[in-house]
Amino acid sequence: MTSHMLVDTAKAIVADGKGLLAMDESNATCDKRFDEIDIAQTQAMRCDWRGLLITTPDLGQYISGVILYDETFRQATADGTPLVKVLQDAGILVGIKVDIGAKALALHPTEKVTEGLDGLRERLRDYAAMGARFAKWRAVIDPAPGGASSPSEACLRANAHALGRYAALCQEAGLVPIVEPEVLMDGDHTQAHGREVTENLLRHVFAALTRQDVVLEAMILKPNMVVAGRTCAMQATVEEVADATVQCLRRAVPAAVSGIAFLSGGQSGAQACAHLNAMHTRFRTSSAGPLPWSLSFSFGRALQHPALEIWAGQEAHRHAAQRELLHRARCASAASSGQYDPAMEV
């Protein structure tokens, strides 16, 4: 695929009013969610659940693409239709998670580095042949690991290097890379500290992408919003989150990047939508000028979890669960264009 075609795909991912449904949880994580609400932890149930999400009527009105896990990528509906084809027929771009998870960083046991580069060129080639248009790799950064005040330089560099290598391999294979450097919201760190770590991480990431000659116009950044740690006594307001996030991005993300699709990072759907919406409304007429990138969403649990609780493994609840997923997608879509209103949640 040419660079021009990759740019077109990247723009389609963050098209006005649309974003990504991230349903790429590992089997272990999916089973953990099932266990919380007493759903049988089997491959068949995972297939039923993921098939429910993918076959939601009219999902393509609000969702431009879906990020799949390898197991889901190879599964089919009850009538034998591959789930990838269901998405393609609905006009939804197919994506695939390709990292193999965060492992302990050598000599830094309280920090993580994401692995999966070995054999990645061949895996990307195979996924592209099976219909993937984009891929995703997540780096996980603890803002205060093991009692330290900040992540180490070694951790930031290792994860940035892996993201750069991954992104270059994606573009070589004709896939748009979703680059996901996530500063976790776990812990009691302040919003100011979260912003400092996020900005530092983004600078490392874009330096690595540049060294690998990644075409910035043909990639999507999937960052965290700049929030305080979950257990911090002083939580930021919606307006403070929007301001800190946009200001951080302005300082660290090149204007050439096609779009930014925020992860929800443990926020509820309503919280994530309120924050994304405020970024649009507060900076639409900002004296600093218009934002250089499209701001959209790539939500996982924030979109899925309410529907999962309704479904609860019961076929009789399938349509009600799909209606809830569509509602959450509609809210996220509205937020991505500054049209979200909390009254939509009633």
Give a verbal description of the structure.
The protein has 346 residues and is of the alpha/beta class. It has a single domain, classed as Aldolase class I (TIM Barrel), CATH 3.20.20. 45% of the residues lie in helices and 16% in strands. The strands form two sheets. It has an eight-stranded parallel barrel, surrounded by eight helices. Strands 4-5 form a two-stranded antiparallel ribbon. The chain is globular.
Characteristic terms for this protein:
single chain, about 350 residues, alpha/beta, TIM Barrel, eight-stranded parallel beta barrel, two-stranded antiparallel sheet, 12 helices, about 45% helix
**CATH architecture level-2 label:** Alpha-Beta Barrel
Which H/E pattern describes the elements?
HEHHEHHEEEHEHEHEHEHEHH
Radius of gyration: 19 Å
Number of domains: 1
Backbone structural class: alpha/beta
**Secondary structure tally: strands:** 10
Strand order in the largest sheet? 1-2-3-6-7-8-9-10
For the record, what CATH class applies? Alpha Beta
Which whole number gives the mean pLDDT?
Answer: 95
